[in-house]
């Protein structure tokens, strides 16, 4: 681990004499790597953009598989085909937002999102924001799901995909995209039917076992419509209908269970984007409707629960560019959330103001923002962000970011019956992040990008559930998280061909390393043994080492995932051992003038390693995926 970290540090400090003209504002494009001049770009938190070369290997996978292999995010997987949640820099799942086309889709009931139920095929872009922001509820980061910027031209595209997994799972995807000079519409559907059946070594019985009662069915239907009313007016409509049914298998220490869960969701948003002719002002208005219903049943203990909820978020956004150095941004939000069965509601009004000044002193850019909120609970304090970037030389940028953020308790934490606590206070966080960014393209064939960050986060009034017969949430803990993250991408193109959208011969390497300490510093529980100890299920060490090779028409991607030990008790008395996973992705691309066929094979867990990400939830050993994607244009 220390050797790898040294390599990442060296790459991030690398400087060469071949530099891009500092006065240029043109995009430098090496196929899928886009690097723009920093002077015209609004400052943003640390964001990992997963490029299309990597996404192409996961088109028939879900968000859980992509993130666990291609990022520093820890995925808490409850078993193949079952729920997966995420932890960024030692956070809880509810402290991380999932944004779909800019709209938070975290459950109004629980505050979390099951990323195993989100298929990659429905989205063009998947980005990961690692740091907190002034956005309401964004204490630790966000996953950003979006479509590419629309291009209005006469075109039509049809895609069909199928994948079979040797654990008895079947995936089908289809999409239809049509556009002209005024309209662009994309409709996609994804179907999953799986048994998730495999044999594994049961550490509790010390025998080979077979996972049963783990079937799952899933349906996702999306539609995205863009209407170009005029040069300065753009209308957008997004629809996402989702249905999931699962049988929850017994944990390795259980003998017999009969548990099922199902969820239904209808998400709809409308937006309009206005850009006056002077281009100094940009205006956006969004309104969304999010209905969800979660059902849980355990017939053994006669427990049956139904949780319907509704969210109605609306956003008004205006950006003003006073001159080439100064930017102003005003954002106003109103969010109505309700538990339909209990008629418990939460209304929130949020106002945010941002100011950015580029080149205030030579190559220094600063950005400051303030956010305030009004609701009928005890209103949280002002949320604020101050960040700066300094262009040390053309390849190297230093950055620093301070954020004060908060998270309002979920409706489940406030009003769950029995056990809700309506007196809960918001979680408050203070975040510091410092880093160095290298973006360098010495030639048109070579690109180097490295980002190393050191962070510190303090979360006060951390919400935790505890109790005896009835669990109740309480503001009990002060948690400190700190660590180092490294993200490095190297790419070398041997050869390109004008008829191919991607390099015909290329080498790539993606390295992700994370060292995370997330410990309880104070607690209201008497004699709490968690003080000074790691938060359960927060690995201290994570490494992702992913080389890729393109030799048209073949593409290869090898992924290595190392996850360190995770404590499963608050006093660190028990833990799960580290595990390493090796996967190999291979693709073949056949292209014709009017269509292309992409066939693929994935060998999962090549070394057949037996492991658990959560206690009692064994993951499969070696298994195989076969896929085919057909695209007509």
Short recap of the structure:
The chain has four helices and 37 strands. It is mainly beta and 633 residues long.
Brief descriptors of the model:
single chain; 633 residues; mainly beta; 22-stranded antiparallel barrel; 5-stranded mixed beta sheet; 4 helices; disordered N terminus
Describe this structure in words.
By secondary structure, the protein is mainly beta. It is built from 4 helices and 37 strands. The protein has a 22-stranded antiparallel barrel. Strands 3-8-9-6-7 form a 5-stranded mixed beta sheet, with no helix packed on it. Strand 15 and strand 16 form a beta hairpin.
User: Structural class of the helices, strands and pairings?
Assistant: mainly beta
Give the helix tally: 4
Overall body shape: globular
DSSP helix fraction: under 10%
What is the CA-based Rg, rounded? 24 Å
Unreliable segments of 5+ consecutive residues: 1-40
Count of distinct strands: 37
Q: Approximately what portion of the residues adopt beta-strand conformation?
A: over 45%
Kindly report the average pLDDT value: 86
Give the biggest beta sheet. 22 strands, antiparallel, barrel
């Amino acid at each position: 681990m220390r050797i790898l970290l040294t390599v990442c540090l060296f790459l991030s400090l690398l400087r060469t004499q071949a530099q891009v003209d500092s006065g240029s504002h043109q995009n430098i494009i090496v196929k899928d790597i886009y690097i723009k001049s920093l002077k015209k770009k609004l400052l943003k938190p640390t964001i990992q953009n997963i490029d299309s070369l990597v996404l192409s290997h996961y088109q028939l996978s879900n968000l859980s598989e992509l993130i666990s292999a291609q990022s520093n995010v820890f995925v808490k997987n409850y078993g193949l085909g079952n729920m997966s949640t995420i932890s960024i820099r030692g956070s809880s799942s509810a402290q991380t937002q999932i944004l779909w086309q800019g709209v938070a889709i975290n459950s109004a009931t629980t505050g979390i999102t099951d990323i195993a139920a989100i298929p990659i095929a429905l989205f063009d872009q998947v980005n990961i924001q690692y740091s907190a922001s002034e956005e309401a509820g964004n204490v630790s980061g966000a996953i950003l799901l979006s479509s590419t910027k629309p291009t209005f031209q006469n075109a039509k595209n049809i895609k069909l995909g199928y994948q079979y997994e040797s654990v008895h799972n079947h995936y089908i995807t289809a999409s239809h995209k049509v556009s002209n000079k005024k309209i662009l519409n994309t409709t996609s559907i994804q179907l999953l039917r799986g048994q998730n059946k495999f044999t594994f070594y049961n550490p509790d019985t010390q025998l080979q076992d077979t996972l049963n009662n783990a079937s799952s069915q899933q349906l996702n239907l999306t539609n995205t419509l863009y209407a170009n009313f005029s040069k300065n007016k753009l209308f957008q409509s997004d629809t996402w209908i989702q249905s999931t049914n699962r049988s929850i298998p017994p944990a390795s220490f259980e003998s017999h269970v009969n548990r099922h869960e199902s969820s239904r969701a209808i998400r709809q948003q409308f937006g309009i984007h206005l850009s006056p002719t002077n281009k100094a002002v940009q205006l956006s208005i969004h309104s969304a409707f999010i209905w969800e219903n979660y059902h849980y049943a355990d017939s053994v203990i006669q427990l049956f629960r139904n949780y319907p909820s509704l969210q109605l978020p609306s956003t008004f956004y205006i950006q003003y560019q006073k001159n080439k150095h100064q930017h102003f941004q005003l954002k106003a939000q109103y969010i109505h959330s309700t538990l339909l069965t209990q008629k418990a509601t939460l209304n929130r009004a949020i106002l945010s103001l941002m100011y950015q000044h580029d080149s205030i002193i030579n190559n220094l850019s600063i950005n400051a923002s303030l956010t305030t909120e009004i609701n009928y609970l005890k209103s949280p304090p002002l949320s604020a962000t101050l960040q700066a970037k300094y262009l040390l030389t053309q390849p190297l940028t230093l950055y620093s970011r301070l954020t004060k953020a908060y998270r309002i308790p979920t409706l489940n934490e406030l009003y769950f019956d029995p056990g809700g606590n309506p007196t809960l206070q918001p979680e408050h966080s203070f975040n510091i992040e410092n880093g160095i960014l290298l973006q360098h393209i010495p030639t048109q064939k070579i690109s180097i990008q490295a980002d190393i960050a050191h962070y510190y986060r303090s979360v006060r009034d951390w919400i935790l559930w505890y109790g005896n017969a009835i669990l109740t949430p309480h503001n009990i803990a002060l948690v400190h998280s700190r660590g180092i993250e490294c993200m490095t991408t190297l790419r070398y193109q041997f050869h390109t061909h004008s008829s191919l959208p991607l390099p015909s011969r290329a080498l790539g390497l993606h390295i992700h390393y994370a060292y995370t300490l997330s410990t309880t510093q104070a607690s209201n529980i008497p004699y709490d043994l968690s003080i000074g100890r790691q938060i359960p299920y927060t690995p201290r060490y994570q490494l992702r080492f992913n080389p890729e090779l393109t030799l048209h028409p073949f593409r290869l991607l090898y992924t290595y995932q190392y996850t360190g030990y995770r404590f499963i008790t608050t006093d660190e008395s028990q833990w799960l051992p580290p595990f390493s996973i090796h996967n190999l992705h291979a693709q073949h691309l056949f292209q014709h003038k009017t269509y292309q066929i992409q066939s693929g094979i994935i060998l999962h867990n090549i070394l057949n390693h037996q492991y658990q990400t959560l206690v009692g939830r064994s993951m499969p050993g070696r298994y195989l995926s076969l896929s085919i994607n057909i695209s007509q244009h």
